[in-house]
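#struct-pred

JT: dropping the chains for the assembly here, can someone run the whole complex?
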Amino acid sequence: MKTIKVSVVTPDGPVYESDVEMVSTKAQSGELGILPGHIPMVAPLAIGVVRLKKAGGKEPDLVAVSGGFLEVRPEKVTILAQAAEKAEDIDVERALRARERAEQRMKDQKAEHTDFRRAELALQRAINRLTVTGKQ
Ligand code: ATP
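RK: done, full complex below.
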């Protein structure tokens, strides 16, 4: 099967680079699957998991992405993320603490308050990281 180059890049530098058979992720418009030969496009990403299926690989590689953009060009897929972590780089204890903190803030705030929305996003990031590590 054909493959395409994928890189996941953040403001702190590259996080993931590989040749893969398929990339699937969560765009703001819904789930998105990219195969080699996909038409060029740019899509805003939601907080979600990027699944990278490698040739002959069993389980896909997983990367937690906290929003950003996906760009598909004929020879390459680039994910420009605000923050991104490979499963093995995620600090589970930190994500558990972040989840706890966010849940507490949401209890303490009214839903229309901007701090509520901020806590909601922090909660989504924490849950996403825990999902990638299989601890959710
Ligand atoms: P926290 O409150 O724990 O900082 P956060 O969701 O506010 O979580 P971000 O602002 O999304 O954190 O990320 C800041 C930096 O910390 C990024 O480089 C991100 O990759 C890294 N990071 C955040 N949480 C974790 C984690 N649980 N494990 C590893 N790296 C993390």
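JT: nice. The pocket of adenosine-5'-triphosphate is lined by residues 12, 66, 83, 85, 89-91, 94-95, 98, 122, 125, 129 (CB under 6 Å). The chain has two domains: 4-87, 91-133.
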